[in-house]
Specification:
Layout lengths: L2 H9 L12 E3 H13 L32 H14 L9 E3 L2 E3 L5 H37 L5 E4 L23 H4 L1 E2 L15 E6 H10 L4 H4 L2 H11 L5 H5 L7 H14 L11 H5 L1
Antiparallel strand pairs: 1-6, 2-3, 4-6, 5-6
Helix pairs in contact: 2-4, 3-4, 8-10
Length: 283
């Protein structure tokens, strides 16, 4: 199974997570509980399987400004985005060739729009990754300091192991454990995420509940302001800049304008969210 698909299947099926038993809770449940505590409604539960990054890799120090500088796979990605989100371009399906699909040539406008769509996708994906990393880091810190305990259990069931030593979490290379909430009981610091001998990770409920009680909402710190602006405009296309600015009343005008310009670069439809007409202002 494709790794991304496996992660999506895992995090998309929380109802299949093991139930609480003997004072233990499955790590996957703990991740979602802490995520909701820290990020509220912004936490979807799918942060462990973020969208792929689609922006073409830099060539000679910059993003390919032309399809001629892009790899075939990158051209295919841009073509997929345009056919999905800009059907008005009327792009044909790629031709099947012996060495792989070949896409139709792009106009300069189509290529630029494809890059914009890729940037938009990647900004969303990076925000999702930031949320997941923030939750994983909080749990790792708590486990490393001994404020919460952890244990392993065979995937098919059975007895829990003895509590893992806090030193089992004393590494900068263990974020992979959170991909499928598994680890190897002997090769604890291996780079793998699953396989023969890997077991499910559980944490003690008492320690988790103490952590949840002190978890402060931090969605604003993880989601960039410009991204919030874009999402507001998407949710309500009639919003004008002054109306959107009202939601950031604690922010100075100069600071808001800086985020606004960033949002407009990523989402051109914000060009239409300028100052309302005099008639609408007087309404």
């Amino acid at each position: 199974m494709d790794e991304i698909r496996e992660f999506l299947q895992f995090w998309g099926s929380p109802g299949r997570f093991p139930p609480d038993f003997g004072g233990y809770r499955f790590l996957g449940k703990a991740v979602n509980e802490l995520g909701k505590a820290k990020f509220g409604p912004d936490w979807t539960g799918l942060e462990g399987s973020p969208p792929r990054l689609l922006m073409p890799k830099s060539v000679w120090g910059g993003i390919p400004g032309s399809e001629l500088l892009a790899e075939p796979r990158q051209r295919l990605t841009i073509d997929d985005l345009l056919r999905k989100y800009r059907p008005d371009f009327g792009r044909p399906f790629p031709e099947r060739r012996p060495f792989g699909p070949v896409v139709a040539p792009f106009t300069d406008g189509q290529w630029e729009e494809g890059l914009r769509l890729a940037r938009e996708n990647d900004a969303k994906s990076l925000a999702i990754r930031q949320r997941f990393a923030a939750v994983a880091n909080s749990l790792i810190e708590c486990l490393r300091e001994g404020r919460m305990k952890s244990a392993l259990r065979p995937e098919r069931g059975g007895e829990y192991s003895a509590f893992l030593s806090p030193s089992s979490w004393n590494s900068e290379e263990i974020a992979g454990r959170f991909s499928l909430c598994r680890m190897h009981p002997i090769k604890q610091f291996t780079a793998g995420v699953t396989g023969d001998g890997y077991q499910l990770i559980f944490v003690d409920i008492e320690g988790l509940e103490k952590l949840l009680a002190t978890a402060a909402p931090s969605a604003g710190a993880a989601i960039p302001t410009w991204r919030k602006i874009v999402e507001m405009k998407k949710n309500d296309p009639t919003l004008t800049k002054p109306k959107i600015a009202e939601h950031f009343s604690r922010m100075g005008k100069r600071e808001f304008d800086r985020h606004w310009e960033k949002a407009r670069e990523q989402y051109p439809l914000l060009q239409k969210a300028g100052r309302p007409s005099r008639q609408s202002e007087n309404d």
